[in-house]
Amino acid sequence: MEQKFVKETRCIKISRVFPPDVNNHNTMFGGKLMSQIDDIASISASKLCRVTAVTASTDSVDFLRPIRPTDSVSLESFVTWTGKTSMEVFVKVITENLRTGKRDIAATSFLTFVGLDETNMPVPVPRVIPETEEEKKLYETASHRSEMRRTRREASKKFADFLLTKYPWE
Fold first, then answer.
1. Can you spell out the DSSP letters for 48-116?
2. Which has fewest Cβ within 10 Å: 50, 86, 99, 116?
3. Do the Cβ atoms of 132 and 9 come closer than 8 Å?
4. Contact criterion met (CB below 8 Å) for 40 and 92
5. From first to last of its 170 residues, what are the pLDDT tens digits of the chain?
């Protein structure tokens, strides 16, 4: 099985926070940040497998600090772990106050992607090799997150059986 270093999947995107990006609290819209997280995570996943990579789940988006118009926002993503056809991608969001230079972790997120072939069938993906302490810690703790995902997915499928698909007026 092919292997790649985690660093081969690393992506970084830095942008300013402009007035249309903020809500009535003058902080960045969570949904806008979530869209940016999914976007950069998909690039990391594609860099690993070099086929179409689709989002299978967003395990978590933990908003830790507000992001303000005086900040730049840096999203850093990389594949932390792989299964047979799936990839766990970690995204950390770092703010930098452009006036003071102070940097903080504003959010973290874990997403799962699946590599697909031309017929939209899952394909095996390369294994990742962690090198830095951060990469190693995320790699070592990934199997626990994978098991939690599996359990949550099973529960979600059972829950979906109870949900209605008819329009409310039917």
1. HHSSEEEEEEEEEEEE-S---TTEEEEEEEEEEEE-SSEEEEEEEEEEEETTT--EEEEEEEEEEEEEE
2. 99
3. no
4. no
5. 699 999 999 999 999 999 999 999 999 999 999 999 999 999 999 999 999 999 999 988 999 999 999 999 999 999 999 999 999 999 999 999 999 999 999 999 999 999 999 999 999 999 999 999 999 999 999 999 999 999 999 999 999 999 989 998 98
